[in-house]
């Protein structure tokens, strides 16, 4: 399997984030103004909500980069409620204003990364989920944001468009998140591209599940990550512990 995104040099990680932004922006440009009000790939959100969310995410990451540079705490959002309200308000903007918001926040984040000193990349900040991470983690946060949400725009992007190193990192990290929260202990994920298998219930021991209770979900790397990320079971199959075909289960919540 391809290595992890996190093991790549900083400039390569920036390149993948920038490529993802270009990919997302290209698919955004395919939408007509009338299509902004149509459904996105995320339940409960139309495309305008999604576009506002991705734009405000870039602005929120700028806050973390300012925190890293200055040492003064600057959270991504004042609160989860404020984040939600910001997205709802942004979704009411006309399409031209939403596109301008996207362009502006993308440019701000690029400048913030450009101006970050070598030492500041390692300064610790806190994500909206409460994780303490080095500022360089913003590269991964934005990378997964733009590549996945490009698919959610429903404008032709696919999980198979996502670079393998990003898919491989998601293939490892999503089950790890389930394991940390004690969910999905009966799931086994199989990447049929190379045979790699992840048993979510491997650890800790309290999450272990007997073999006959396990559900094995198989697919290509792109397909299994799409399913694990909650974007549907296209091109994946499932069997029970006895090897009999069964319906593809809903994955646990990831983010």
UniProtKB/TrEMBL annotation:
<dbReference type="GO" id="GO:0046872">
    <property type="term" value="F:metal ion binding"/>
</dbReference>
<feature type="domain" description="MDMPI C-terminal">
    <location>
        <begin position="161"/>
        <end position="248"/>
    </location>
</feature>
<dbReference type="InterPro" id="IPR010872">
    <property type="entry name" value="MDMPI_C-term_domain"/>
</dbReference>
<protein>
    <submittedName>
        <fullName>Putative mycothiol-dependent maleylpyruvate isomerase</fullName>
    </submittedName>
</protein>
<feature type="domain" description="Mycothiol-dependent maleylpyruvate isomerase metal-binding">
    <location>
        <begin position="25"/>
        <end position="153"/>
    </location>
</feature>
<dbReference type="InterPro" id="IPR034660">
    <property type="entry name" value="DinB/YfiT-like"/>
</dbReference>
<dbReference type="InterPro" id="IPR036527">
    <property type="entry name" value="SCP2_sterol-bd_dom_sf"/>
</dbReference>
<dbReference type="Pfam" id="PF11716">
    <property type="entry name" value="MDMPI_N"/>
</dbReference>
<dbReference type="Pfam" id="PF07398">
    <property type="entry name" value="MDMPI_C"/>
</dbReference>
<dbReference type="InterPro" id="IPR024344">
    <property type="entry name" value="MDMPI_metal-binding"/>
</dbReference>
<keyword id="KW-0670">Pyruvate</keyword>
<dbReference type="GO" id="GO:0016853">
    <property type="term" value="F:isomerase activity"/>
</dbReference>
<feature type="region of interest" description="Disordered">
    <location>
        <begin position="236"/>
        <end position="255"/>
    </location>
</feature>
<keyword id="KW-0413">Isomerase</keyword>
<dbReference type="InterPro" id="IPR017517">
    <property type="entry name" value="Maleyloyr_isom"/>
</dbReference>
């Amino acid at each position: 399997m391809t290595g992890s995104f996190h093991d790549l040099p900083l400039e390569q990680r920036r390149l993948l984030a920038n490529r993802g932004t270009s990919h997302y922006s290209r698919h955004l440009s395919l939408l007509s103004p009338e299509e902004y009000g149509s459904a996105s790939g995320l339940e409960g959100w139309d495309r305008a909500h999604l576009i506002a969310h991705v734009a405000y995410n870039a602005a929120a990451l700028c806050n973390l980069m300012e925190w890293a540079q200055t040492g003064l705490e600057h959270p991504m959002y004042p609160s989860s409620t404020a984040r939600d309200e910001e997205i709802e308000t942004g979704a009411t903007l006309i399409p031209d204003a939403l596109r301008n918001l996207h362009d502006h926040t993308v440019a701000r984040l690029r400048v913030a990364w450009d101006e970050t000193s070598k030492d500041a990349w390692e300064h610790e900040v806190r994500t909206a989920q409460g994780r303490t991470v080095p500022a360089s983690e913003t590269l991964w946060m934005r990378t997964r944001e733009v590549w996945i949400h490009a698919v959610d725009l429903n404008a032709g992007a696919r999980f198979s468009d996502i670079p393998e190193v990003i898919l491989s990192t998601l293939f490892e990290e999503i089950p790890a998140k389930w394991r940390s929260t004690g969910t999905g202990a009966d799931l086994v994920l199989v990447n049929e591209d190379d045979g790699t298998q992840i048993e979510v219930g491997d650890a800790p021991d309290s999450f272990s599940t007997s073999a006959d209770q396990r559900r094995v979900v198989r697919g290509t790397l792109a397909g299994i990550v799409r399913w694990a990320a909650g974007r549907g079971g296209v091109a994946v199959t499932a069997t029970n512990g006895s090897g009999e075909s069964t319906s593809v289960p809903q994955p646990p919540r990831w983010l």
